[in-house]
Structure to design on (192 residues):
């Protein structure tokens, strides 16, 4: 499955509609899809096509935030019919419950940090709707978190090109674990 998704991402990145595909994949990933967007960002920039890293990051950020609003709506209005089904399908109920309990205590920091991590963003968006998080706060933290994530990935990819793509593919899980450890340490000290 991972290999097929990577191959699809590489093909989509080379297509003339790569930015439209990035928009829709990023939009859907924020509320429905399990596939990470940053591989598509990596492939688009690694091929040195006509898109600037800023444009790629901006499209990924804007569409992710808009898709996050769909997740929020699912959580707020349709949790029992759609949201619960998505959580059950992806086996995210435990993460969702843990996130909801923590969210009630530190909304700004949790939403901002969680939207930057490899934690599936759909958990954050649906939970934000279920727990009726203030929409301006939700949008602000989504823009900050998703923006930082995509602008950093796009900048580093543009700067180091194909080396980043190869490194990310080879060290995917160790990178995720190190990133999570760093974020948890930062999060721990912020809560203290």
């Amino acid at each position: 499955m991972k290999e097929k998704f990577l191959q699809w991402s590489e093909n989509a990145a080379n297509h003339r509609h790569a930015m439209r595909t990035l928009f829709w994949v990023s939009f859907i990933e924020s509320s429905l899809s399990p596939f990470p967007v940053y591989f598509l960002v990596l492939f688009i920039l690694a091929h040195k096509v006509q898109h600037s890293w800023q444009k790629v990051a901006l499209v990924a950020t804007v569409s992710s935030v808009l898709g996050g609003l769909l997740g929020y709506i699912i959580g707020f209005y349709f949790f029992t019919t759609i949201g619960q089904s998505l959580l059950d399908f992806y086996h995210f109920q435990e993460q969702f419950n843990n996130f909801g309990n923590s969210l009630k205590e530190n909304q700004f920091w949790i939403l901002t940090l969680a939207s930057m991590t490899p934690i599936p963003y759909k958990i954050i968006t649906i939970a934000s709707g279920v727990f009726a998080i203030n929409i301006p706060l939700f949008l602000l933290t989504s823009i900050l978190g998703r923006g930082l994530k995509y602008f950093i990935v796009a900048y580093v990819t543009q700067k180091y090109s194909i080396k980043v793509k190869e490194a990310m593919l080879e060290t995917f899980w160790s990178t995720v674990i190190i990133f999570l450890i760093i974020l948890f340490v930062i999060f721990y000290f912020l809560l203290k």
